[in-house]
Design a protein that fits this description.
This protein has 540 residues and is mainly beta. It is built from two helices and 35 strands.
Length: 540
């Protein structure tokens, strides 16, 4: 090519080659080759026969206005290694595993000077490769590590000339066109953020989509023979006029086989957490502050106060020192168990809440693993509403950390862990109610009705007017109706009717305190003679 920013170009040249950079040999006995006639058109010169060399020199013989030129070398394509094409974008379009180069037929973008961002492509540009000598179109996997300037609207990611404008797109989510393919990943794609997008196509047209190494969609779409690509054309980023993409790409890889889920996670640098069988039911774990850690907090308050109050239902929240995505809050479940998800709230006393987060788990607090390969979970939209996120599969761990990724006002949050319910021990449920609503003998948790109240190590759990506790005891209590209940309680007032125990199907009947006397309703069925005094503890 000529000089891009001025009307200068070379119109003729000769070529010399060398094996060692010392001894030089003219190509075709020094014949003069015709070159450019304008600034930017690429002119290819093919020798009559290939020459073997390491170094190539171009010697201009004629020019227009000035000796200015841009040049590249055409090398003979080598067979790709291990049925792979690996393009690391280190200043060129060559594959690190040999095979064909990528081409930029719609115009070439820019290379990041420091290789930190990769190759810059603009709207209307794109890349293409003839993979026919390396890849079997029936069984293959492709990976694109890229980031997009805009993620609203349809942005082409990957396709083939036989698919028309169908293929992989970004439109706030990673998905396949046409929409009737019914293949879409739930996670929201953010602009100016790198993602590892992967697709595999196997026997029978089974297609899998992976985001950052996590399989997020799969199926057998009935289009283009199960999205079997053209044997001579894989295209990246180039779509219809209004669906072109712009951004950066750091890596493109193509394999001549279907990678396993584990291999996809590894290629995307994901350390995937160990998964477990799904829960039949879950328990919301809200541990004491002695089993919670944070990366930092404002003002060094004592646990449970001000900005160090990250327990679900607390009077404030955890507020990290900085607005930073590396800050975290951690819960210790107490033992290695199946963790099914998390529950979060915003800051109770300020308009601050986390709108999205990532999660990691660990068995020992030292080695940490991504939940769903770093999936960004959508979280709260106000201060106090509890938002539960169940993982696709329960994961094995003792510790779970949340990393705020976006927030309103400030990354303040409260959290609890959803763990798989364990069977109660020996048919007993025992709730101490000193700092949580969990049973000491496993089984289901107590659920607050009308809102969560405060705990006290001295007084237990505080219950206010029109609030209470509920329990689903199925699986622990004798289905034939034989059971015993003990409640250690004290009352602020003992006058009138005060309900103590009720069950669905009883209506208004149940165990009551009536004017200081323990009574079964309907009235006078059974009644204890001893008078119950206010503000004294009794075991009922």
């Amino acid at each position: 090519q000529g000089r891009r920013e001025a009307r200068q170009w070379v119109t003729g040249f000769t070529v010399q080659t060398s094996l060692d950079g010392i001894t030089w040999v003219p190509v075709q006995c020094g014949v003069e080759f015709e070159a450019n006639r304008d600034q930017n058109t690429k002119v290819r010169t093919i020798f009559r026969r290939p020459v073997k060399a390491r170094y190539v020199r171009i010697l201009p013989t004629r020019y227009y206005n000035w000796v200015s030129m841009r040049a590249g070398v055409l090398t003979c394509e080598r067979k790709c290694e291990k049925g792979e094409l690996q393009y690391p974008f280190r200043g060129n379009f060559m594959s690190a595993t040999k095979g064909p180069n990528l081409d930029a037929p719609w115009g070439e973008g820019n290379w990041d000077r420091w290789d930190s961002l990769g190759y810059r492509f603009y709207r209307g540009q794109g890349l293409i490769v003839d993979e026919s000598r390396c890849i079997n179109p029936s069984n293959w996997t492709v990976l694109v590590k890229a980031r997009f300037d805009q993620t609203h609207g349809w942005r082409k990611l990957f396709g083939s000339d036989t698919w028309g404008w169908d293929g992989l797109y970004i439109n706030q989510q990673f998905q396949m066109m046409p929409k009737s393919s019914m293949m879409k990943c739930n996670e929201r794609i953010l602009p100016n953020t790198y993602y590892n997008f992967m697709m595999s196509r196997g026997a029978g047209g089974m297609v899998n989509l992976y985001l950052n190494g996590y399989k997020c969609s799969w199926g057998v779409p009935p289009f283009h023979q199960g999205f079997k690509p053209s044997p001579t054309s894989l295209e990246f980023f180039h779509g219809p006029n209004h669906q072109h993409s712009a951004g950066y790409v750091k890596r493109i890889a193509v394999w001549d086989r279907v990678l396993s889920d584990e291999e996809c996670a590894t290629e995307s640098e994901c350390k995937l957490a160990e998964v477990a069988s799904q829960c039949n039911s879950t328990v919301t774990l809200i541990p004491p502050y002695s089993r919670m850690k944070v990366s930092s907090y404002h003002h060094h308050p004592r646990p449970g106060s001000q900005c160090n109050a990250g327990r679900l239902g607390s009077s404030s929240a955890w507020c990290p020192r900085h607005r930073d995505k590396s800050e975290w809050i951690e819960i210790d479940v107490g033992f290695v168990h199946r963790i099914a998800g998390v529950v979060t709230q915003g800051r109770r006393n300020y308009h601050q809440w986390v709108t999205s987060y990532k999660a990691m788990v660990s068995k020992d607090g030292v080695r940490w693993f991504d939940v769903q390969c770093g999936t960004v979970f959508q979280a709260n939209r106000n201060r106090n509403t509890k938002v539960a996120n169940l993982f696709d599969k329960a994961v094995i761990g003792r510790y779970i950390r949340l990393f705020p990724q976006s927030w309103y006002g400030f990354p303040s949050m409260r959290m609890g862990a959803l763990i798989c319910e364990k069977p109660c021990q020996q048919g007993v449920l025992d709730y101490q109610l000193l700092d949580d609503l969990e049973s000491q003998t496993m089984g289901p948790e107590l659920l607050p009705v009308g809102g969560m109240n405060q705990f006290s190590l001295d007084w237990g759990y505080r219950v206010y007017h029109n609030r209470g506790l509920m329990l689903n005891s199925l699986g622990c209590v004798d289905k034939q109706g034989a059971y015993t209940v003990l409640i250690k309680v004290r009352f602020d007032f003992v006058g009138g009717w005060r309900r103590i125990l009720n069950s669905r199907g009883w209506g208004d009947n149940g165990l009551y305190l009536r004017n200081g006397l323990l009574t079964l309703n309907p009235r006078d069925v059974q009644q204890c003679a001893e008078y119950i005094y206010p503000r004294r503890y009794y075991k009922i």
